[in-house]
Please model this.
Amino acid sequence: MAKAIDMHVHLPTPGFLDGAIKLYAAAAERFFRNSVPRREMDEVARLYEELDITGVLLAWDAETATGLPRLSNDEVADIVKAYPGRFIGFASVDPWKGEWAIKEMERAIIELGLSGAKFHPGLQAFYPNDTKFYPLYEKICALGVPALFHTGTNALGAGEPGGMGVKMDYTRPIYLDIVAADFPELTIIGAHPAWPWHEEMLAIIGHKSNVFMDLSGWSPKYIPRAIMDEARTRLQDRILFGSDYPFITPQRWLADFDALEGFSSEVRQKILHDNAARILKLGEPS
Ligand SMILES: [Zn+2]
Model:
């Protein structure tokens, strides 16, 4: 059993950074004044092995809204298979692809062995609570896997005129509250601290037991205090470690988390590992 589960790992490969999110990644790198080195997955697997972390790799399909090529579910599944026990894969389908998206989600989970669904309402340009997409959620419920949705502001497109067309309203957490109410059997993970709507997100997590948050994309040192106060106490079973690699490295995230005071070792264990293991049904016969 790995020491920690990183719920939010992007591929640092040219196929993702210079393909699927091309122009947006360049803007994000300028915004953070931080260039992201391109790496092969061999190197990433070695890093996660050294750190004793299981990484959740995210596919990407925002073809309709961005016109950029997808990072396919097959590619993610191949990597998961190439490094047994090191990675878990989440499928991505472009919700605008209708019937195909539903079939592809089923194929990704059943045939490719992926373990969840990842959506980016900002880059995929859709309202999560639009009932047009409910048949897709029904399929995800039937497959019994969690769905991860980007929440809060977007690094992609940040600092550019018009944010490169990315609309932040899509990534407000309140729309997930509606989905969570309509699909109580669906496990929903809000990716990132949902800033500037983190209090809205905390209210949703407090109200609906099928909703969780991953802390990726922010160093723990800068995550709003309201979130960390809840993570230590009332919502300690619902908050998950995620790095947002390669934009933030897991070593940096973990070191900054270690340095925070007030977390018992029991709560740390839940955030770093146990909450994710429960959602992902690790250790349970499949
Ligand atoms: Zn991300």
